[in-house]
Amino acid sequence: MSTSAVCEVCGNSPAARIKLRRGVGLVLAQRIYKADAILCDVCAAAATSEYQSKTVIQGWTSPRSALMNPFYIASNAVNRAKHKKNLRDS
Ligand SMILES: [Zn+2]
């Protein structure tokens, strides 16, 4: 990760790429929201907790998204851990 990366939200550095996903269950369908952004530690923490809490609140209303939710929550946690490591290494 380049040390010249700056946060897309607040402009702080260091920043690193992070990918997050969440599913919103509808009655018959599922919407999937994805984030792929260069964020600093503070903004990534805020984005991760927003995605995780919305997944927990909105993600269980259809059987299919209930099935996918544990995967989203786990992969967001993994991606956030990788993001922290990238920031440390940069
Ligand atoms: Zn930031």
Descriptive notes:
It is a single chain. This protein is of the alpha+beta class. The chain has one domain (16-89). Helix content is 50%, strand content 22%. The chain has 2 helices and 2 strands, in the order ββαα. The chain has helices at residues 41-58, 63-89; strands spanning 16-25, 30-39. Strands 1-2 form a two-stranded antiparallel sheet. The longest helix has 27 residues, at 63-89. The protein is elongated, with a radius of gyration of 14 Å. The model has no long low-confidence stretch (mean pLDDT 88).
List the helices and strands and how they pair.
Layout: E1 16-25, E2 30-39, H1 41-58, H2 63-89
Antiparallel strand pairs: 1-2
Helix pairs in contact: 1-2
Bound molecules: zinc ion.
What percentage of the residues does DSSP assign to strands (E)? 15-25%
Ions, cofactors and other ligands present here are: zinc ion
Give the N-to-C terminal Cα separation. Answer: 6 Å
Q: How much helix is in the residues?
A: 40-55%
Largest beta sheet, briefly?
A: 2 strands, antiparallel
Overall number of structural domains: 1
Tally of individual helices: 2
The assigned structural class equals: alpha+beta
**Uncertain runs with pLDDT below 50, 5 residues or more?**
none
Shape, please? elongated
Strand order of the largest sheet: 1-2
Mean pLDDT across residues: 88
Rg calc: 14 Å
Compressed to H and E, one letter per element, the order equals EEHH
